[in-house]
Amino acid sequence: MQTLIIYSTIDGQTLAICQKMKTIAEQAGEQVSLVTLAQAEALSLADFDKVLIGASIRYGKHRPELYQFVNRHHAVLDTKINGFFTVNVVARKPLKNTPETNPYMQKFLQLSLWQPQLLEVFAGKIDYPKYGLFDRTMIRFIMWMTKGPTDISGTFEFTDWEKVDAFANRFSQS
Questions:
Q1: Which residues sit opposite 6 in a β-bridge?
Q2: Span 120-146, mean pLDDT?
Q3: What is the 3-state secondary structure (H, E, C) of 124-162?
Q4: Cα(37)–Cα(42) distance, rounded to whole angstroms?
């Protein structure tokens, strides 16, 4: 199996999740290419048996390039075993951590011509010390409004790695 894992990340948590998925797919005997969304543009999706895309949220939105990519390539994606996951801090809340209940997944499905076969939602990470002043201030304000962590000296990882493993195994067995 030739598997392509594409990621769109801002701070690196989506990449970390994709790296874990790559390891699991390779352990299942798949040949895996892990690339950014921009790098994927130069590839022929027809060369792959499976395609998985992971994308993060910043300020309530997936990147416009994600929609451009999936809308341009949805016909080819539909011929492959495929999946999509979104990474966002809202998913730290139990009532917003599934594809059916996560507002960003639902918005993606509304705006995308591609309707992936396998969907998942993962909670992300807040790394205040890594952010610049603007992002740190905005994210702290959003966290204050949503009753999340506001200590700007802290790093808060919400990713459920067992859930990541389970999704990676489901995708590998597809």
A1: 35, 53
A2: 94
A3: CEEEHHHCCHHHHHHHHHHHHHCCCCCCCCCEEECCCHH
A4: 10
> What is the Cα–Cα distance from 123 to 113, expressed in whole angstroms?
24
Distances (CA, A) of 42 to 36, 132, 146: 10, 31, 39
In which band, very low, low, confident or very high, does the pLDDT at 58 lie, cut at 50, 70 and 90? confident
Looking at residue 173, the DSSP 8-state letter turns out to be: T
Residue pair 104/62 in contact by the 8 Å Cβ criterion? yes
Report pLDDT for 122.
98
Give the C-alpha distances (Å, rounded to integers) separating 54 from 34, 70, 123, 167.
Answer: 11, 12, 12, 12
Owner of token pair 């700007």: 152
Higher pLDDT, 59 or 110: 110
Q: How many CB atoms within 10 Å of residue 19?
A: 13
Among residues 93, 82, 92, which one has the least CA distance to residue 3? 82
User: Residues 6 or more apart from 123 whose CB is under 8 A from it?
Assistant: 87, 88, 89, 90, 91, 92, 97, 158, 159, 160
Single-letter residue type at 92: R
